[in-house]
Design a protein that fits this description.
Length: about 450
C-alpha cells in the first residue's frame, strides 16, 4: 500500500529545526506549527527526528498499547541523569518500573488519597491564612502561592516533610535545584552534541542541582529509618512495601529516584493547573459566579470535609476544561512497539522514532470540540457531557499503563484548593486587562496577579 510522506518542517544544516521551536515556551510553537501543518509533521531536534501528532484521531491509534509504548527521548532522557528509571522516566520493559508500579499503585489509590485529606487541608489552610493576613490590597502572584501549596502538600503527604514554603518569601532551595534540573534537561536535549564544550558551566550546575536533590532525599530517608512512624505515607509504602509478584523490596536508590519523581511530577503540574484555572475563572465572571454558588450551597460556612468534595460538580468541570486547554504536562512520547507501523493507514512510522503526542494541539481538535475549541467552557465538561466524549479525546493524565499514578492525588488537592479559596475569598485580577502569557520553561501563566478579599462574615 502507498504511504503518504510526513511533512518535514524545513530546517537548517547542522541545527535542524532548532530555530522553529520556541525553547522557552515550546507549546506556543507546537500549536503554531500544528495550525500550519495539520495532523502530523516531523522535526529534526539536535539530530533527532521527532514526529508530532496533533489530532484526536491519530492520538487514538497511538493509545493502543499493543502497537505503541511510552518512549523517553530528549529532555525526558536527560532527566534520567537525576532520577534514572524512576516511575516517570523508566523505559518500556525496565524491571524497576514494574516493581515500583506494583508496590505503589495501592498507595496512590482512592482510599489512601482520602486518608491524606487532613494533611492536604493543613496546607490549604496555610494558604488561606496567608491571603487573609496580607489583605485585599496585596498583589498575590498566584503561580508562586500555588507552587508553595502543591510542593508543601506533596512533600507532607509523600514523606512527612515540611518545606514550610508559606513562611518564606524565597522558594526553598529544593525548588531552585529542581527548576534548574528541569530547564537544563530541556536545553541539553535541544543542543547538538558538538556544542557541548561551550556549556561546561551549565553542565556543572546540572550536576550540582542533581546532587542537592539526591542528598536531601537520602537525608529524609535516613531520618525515617531512624525514626519509624505509625501511619503510612508514600515513603513508608516504598520502605516497607514488597512487590506482590517477586517479594522484592525497592532499593534505596530506587526510593530516591521515586521520591524526587513525586516532587517533580507532583507539584508543577498541579500548581500550573490551579493557576490557569484562576486565570480562566476570573476572566469568565459567569463561571466564577456558578462555582462560588456551588461552594456556598454545598459547603457554606462549615469546615470543608471529604464528603463535600464528592458533591461538587462545577469545580471538576472547570478543572477538566482547564486541563483541556492548558494540559500542564503538554506532551507524551510514544514509539512503535513491534517494528514499523502504518499510522492512520498511510503514514509510515519507523520503530525508535518518537511520536510526540501534542496535547495542547490535540485538545483543541475542532473535529471533537467544534469551532469554539479554543474557548474555555466548563459546561462541556460537566459529568454527563464528559462521559459522552470519544474515548481518547481528553488525555491530560496520559495513557494506559503509563498514565499518571498521581491523578487522584492531584484531583483531591486541586478540588480542595479551589473550594476553600472560593469559600473564604472574593478574588479579582490585579489587571483586568491581563491576557494569558506563558512562563518560560514551565507550563504556567506569567505575571498573573490577583487580589484576595475575605468574604463578608469571615473576619
Ligand atoms: C505520569 C500528568 C499530577 C506523578 C503522568 C503523565 C501525565 C501526567 C500526562 C504521563 C507521562 C508520560 O506518558 O510520559 C499529570 C498532571 C497532573 C499530575 C496534568 C496534575 C494536574 C501528578 C501528581 C503526582 C504525579 C500529583 C504524584 C503525586 C506521576 C508519576 C507518573 C506520572 C509518578 C509516571 C507514571 C508511570 O509511568 O508509571 N502525569 N500529573 N503526577 N505522574 Fe502525573
Amino acid at each position: 500500500k502507498d504511504t503518504v510522506p510526513i511533512p518535514q518542517v524545513p530546517g537548517y544544516p547542522l541545527v535542524g529545526n532548532m530555530f522553529d521551536v520556541n525553547a522557552e515556551t515550546p507549546m506556543e510553537s507546537d500549536m503554531r506549527l500544528a495550525k500550519q501543518y495539520g495532523e502530523i509533521y516531523s522535526l529534526d531536534l539536535g539530530g533527532n527526528r521527532v514526529i508530532h501528532i496533533n489530532t484526536i484521531e491519530l492520538l487514538s491509534e497511538c493509545c493502543d498499547e499493543k502497537r505503541f509504548v511510552k518512549q523517553v527521548p530528549l529532555g525526558m532522557a536527560e532527566l534520567r541523569h537525576g532520577i534514572n528509571d524512576g516511575l516517570f522516566t523508566a523505559r518500556f520493559g525496565e524491571r524497576n518500573w514494574d516493581k515500583a508500579h506494583r508496590i505503589l499503585v495501592p498507595a496512590f489509590g482512592p482510599l489512601s488519597i482520602n486518608g491524606m485529606f487532613d494533611d492536604m487541608k493543613d496546607i490549604a489552610s496555610q494558604l488561606v491564612m496567608k491571603w487573609a493576613r496580607h489583605g485585599p490590597s496585596h498583589k498575590v502572584l498566584v503561580t508562586d502561592d500555588f507552587t508553595r501549596l502543591t510542593l508543601d502538600t506533596i512533600s507532607l503527604c509523600a514523606m512527612d516533610y515540611r518545606f514550610n514554603s508559606f513562611y518564606s518569601d524565597k522558594m526553598h532551595p529544593f525548588i531552585n535545584a529542581m527548576n534548574g534540573f528541569l530547564s537544563i534537561s530541556e536545553k541539553r536535549a535541544e543542543r547538538p552534541a558538538y556544542l557541548s564544550w561551550f556549556y561546561q558551566a551549565e553542565d556543572e550546575k546540572f550536576q550540582k542541582d542533581i546532587k542537592y536533590m539526591r542528598d536531601l532525599s537520602y537525608e529524609i530517608i535516613q531520618h525515617r529509618i531512624e525514626n519509624p512512624r505509625r501511619g503510612r505515607d508514600l515513603l513508608d509504602a516504598m520502605l516497607t512495601g514488597k512487590d506482590p509478584q517477586t517479594g522484592e523490596s525497592l532499593t534505596e536508590d530506587s526510593i530516591v529516584d521515586n521520591l524526587i519523581t513525586f516532587l517533580i511530577a507532583g507539584h508543577e503540574t498541579t500548581s500550573g493547573m490551579l493557576s490557569f484555572l484562576f486565570y480562566y475563572m476570573l476572566k469568565n465572571p459567569e463561571a466564577y459566579r456558578k462555582a462560588q454558588q456551588e461552594v456556598d450551597s454545598v459547603i457554606g460556612k462549615e469546615s470543608m470535609q471529604l464528603e463535600h468534595l464528592k458533591k461538587l460538580k462545577y469545580i471538576p468541570a472547570m478543572l477538566r476544561e482547564t486541563l483541556r486547554l492548558e494540559p500542564t504536562a503538554t506532551v507524551i512520547f510514544v514509539g512503535a512497539k513491534n517494528g514499523p507501523e502504518l499510522l492512520g493507514g498511510k503514514y509510515y512510522i519507523e520503530p525508535d522514532v518518537p511520536l510526540a503526542l501534542q496535547l495542547s494541539a490535540i485538545h483543541r481538535d475542532p473535529a471533537v470540540y467544534g469551532e469554539d475549541a479554543d474557548k474555555w467552557k466548563p459546561e462541556r465538561m460537566l459529568d454527563e457531557e464528559f462521559a459522552k466524549l470519544p474515548k481518547h479525546a481528553w488525555k491530560p493524565f496520559g495513557n494506559g499503563s503509563r498514565a499518571c499514578i498521581g491523578r487522584p492525588f492531584a484531583w483531591q488537592e486541586a478540588m480542595m484548593a479551589v473550594a476553600i479559596g472560593l469559600q473564604y475569598f472574593n478574588f479579582s485580577l490585579d489587571d483586568p486587562a491581563y491576557e494569558l502569557e506563558y512562563e518560560p520553561y514551565s507550563m504556567k501563566p506569567r505575571g498573573l496577579y490577583i487580589h484576595a478579599k475575605l468574604r463578608h462574615g469571615w473576619t
